[in-house]
Specification:
6 helices, signal, Prolamin-like domain-containing protein, disordered C terminus
Length: about 120
């Protein structure tokens, strides 16, 4: 299910003018999350049940994502920046510190723009 979601989302970014070279490889992002057993399932369950429920290993996997993956994961579809912040707050209760917020990755263009931190 997660892979079909990844495949459906990636072309949408290209259609919106995002160049693929600025996006992470979604399969790499999901593979990192999948290193924690059941993490993808727990993320979706937390989202749909509106109750955070994931383990320490899942929070560690999210923390281990690179910057582009974090921004990609928490800036599309139902995984909104607000949901990313809920994940952050929940993981903090487990002792895992995540970045303060997830913001959209803006590629540099002709000396303007850049990454929002």
């Amino acid at each position: 299910m997660a892979m079909s979601l990844v495949m459906a989302i990636t072309p949408a970014f290209s259609a919106l003018g995002w160049e693929e070279r600025y996006l992470p490889d979604p399969s790499v992002c999901w593979a990192e999350i999948n290193k924690a057993d059941g993490c993808v399932l727990h993320l979706y369950a937390s989202l749909f049940k509106n109750k955070m429920n994931m383990g320490f290993e899942c929070c560690e996997a999210i923390r281990g994502l690179d910057y582009k993956c974090k921004n990609w994961m928490f800036n599309h579809g139902r995984f909104t920046p607000e949901f990313g912040n809920r994940v952050k707050r929940f993981c903090a209760t487990l002792g895992v510190t995540l970045p303060p917020s997830y913001r959209i990755y803006y590629p540099q263009t002709h000396g303007h723009g850049g990454l929002e931190h």
